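Researcher: Let's do a round of design. I'm pasting the structure tokens now; please hold your answer until I've finished.
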């Protein structure tokens, strides 16, 4: 199962967001032997970029570990609105 999380970030917060999210993903990658990715939509809209965290082949209990890792970051202060979570299975 793959996990996709997307959210809006003010363009001026792009660098802090990238540093925080990349650091969190590196720790999760080591712990779970996964290869997460961080993506940003190319064109900002109304002063915001859309960012996406991708976590492929996650274990069943991954979301609770992600919540713990997220609580140790400043990401919630950089994100506008909520984090939208979607799961996809291989077909």
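Researcher: That's everything. Go ahead.
Model: Designed sequence:
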């Amino acid at each position: 199962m793959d996990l996709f999380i997307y959210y809006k970030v003010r363009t001026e917060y792009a660098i802090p967001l990238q540093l925080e999210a990349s650091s969190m993903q590196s720790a999760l990658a080591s712990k779970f032997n996964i290869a997460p990715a961080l993506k940003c939509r190319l064109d900002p809209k109304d002063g915001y970029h859309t960012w996406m965290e991708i976590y492929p082949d996650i274990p069943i209990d991954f979301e609770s570990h992600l919540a713990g890792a997220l609580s140790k970051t400043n990401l919630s202060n950089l994100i506008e609105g909520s984090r939208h979570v979607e799961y996809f299975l291989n077909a």
